[in-house]
Amino acid sequence: MLKSCLAILLFVACSLTHATTIDVRLCIKSGSLTLSGGNSLEVVTYSNTNLFLENSALLVWNLGDVVNLTVVNNDSEEHGFNADGLVSYSTISSGDSSTQTINLSNAGVFRYNDNVNSPFNAYLGLSGIIHVKDPSDLTPYFYWDIREIHSDWNPILTNSGIVNITDYDPDFFTVNGNHNPNINLDTIARVTGNVGVEFKIVLVNNGLSIHSMHFHGYHLFNIDDSRSPAFIGREKDTFPLYPHEHLVLSCTPDKPGEYPVHDHNLVAVTGGQEYATGMFLTLLIAP
Ligand SMILES: [Cu+2]
Question: Do 215 and 262 meet the contact criterion of CB atoms below 8 Å apart?
């Protein structure tokens, strides 16, 4: 009998000389993701609470800390856990768990995912964002975990069925498991700020398609790009993001206003063929 998973959320101030050790428990659970137009689909996610999460947990840890990460598999299939450059687990059987200790010696963004049955388990929701943050960085951060869903696939994949990657034709497009207009209620995603005050956005593409996020109103700087260091430093208003890659953008707004951000591939602004219930949100900048 597995004991229920505990929500462990620690905000710890740390100095460079005193590493803090934190215990984090991620539980693999399946459940229902609410989509636009009253639709819903079964997904599988990593939850850091005792509840099912519609989108895998955002993990923000401090540089220098030590994380004891326990992954509990409450699903009926075997799963794994992998974050390139950080940690990799061997397969975890249904009902089993596995713990590893991670020394956070490098700041940065890491995509985590279930590398079992790749890329389908990660597609089903078993993928997310780890941000190892330098505690001296006090910039407000926002996080966009972007992905698509091919609604025909989920009932097949969650019942151990097989799909053909060449049939991929996604019809729902989400940010943090959410969509326009509800996404603007997600304080992790929805940028709110002030003129002259820098903010940063971490973007991770946990889907299987390329997305290209287009910002109205402002130019942003690419300050971290997993695809190529050659892209870092560019100032632009549209940023392509390839599957399983990440970007970090910086912006210091020069004017107040509410400006849209959306995927320039306009099919991704839809949900169930309805416009504009996909990847569309706004930046709200006060004077
Ligand atoms: Cu536009």
Answer: no
Separation between Cα atoms, residue 130 and residue 235, nearest integer Å: 25
Q: How far is the CA of 263 from the centre of ligand 1 (A)?
A: 8
**Rounded CA gap, 81 and 88, in Å?**
6
List the domains of the chain with CATH numbers: 21-138 (2.60.40.420), 146-286 (2.60.40.420)
CA of 43 to the centre of ligand 1 (A): 30
Distance from Cα 35 to the centre of ligand 1, integer Å: 23
Distance separating alpha carbons of residues 36 and 209, to the nearest angstrom:
20
Report the separation in Å between the CA atom of 39 and the middle of ligand 1, taken as the mean of its atom positions. Answer: 26
Q: What is the DSSP letter of 5?
A: P
- Give me the tens of pLDDT residue by residue for the chain, a chain 287 residues long: 444 444 433 444 444 457 899 999 999 999 999 999 999 999 999 999 999 999 999 999 999 999 999 999 999 999 999 999 999 999 999 999 999 999 999 999 999 999 999 999 999 999 999 999 999 999 999 999 999 999 999 999 999 999 999 999 999 999 999 999 999 999 999 999 999 999 999 999 999 999 999 999 999 999 999 999 999 999 999 999 999 999 999 999 999 999 999 999 999 999 999 999 999 999 999 99
The torsion of the CA quartet 162, 168, 172, 174, rounded to 10 degrees, works out to 90
The pTM of this model reads 0.93
Residues around the ion ligand 1 (C-beta < 5 A): 214
CA of 214 to the centre of ligand 1 (A): 6
Ligand 1 centroid to Cα of residue 202, in Å, is: 20
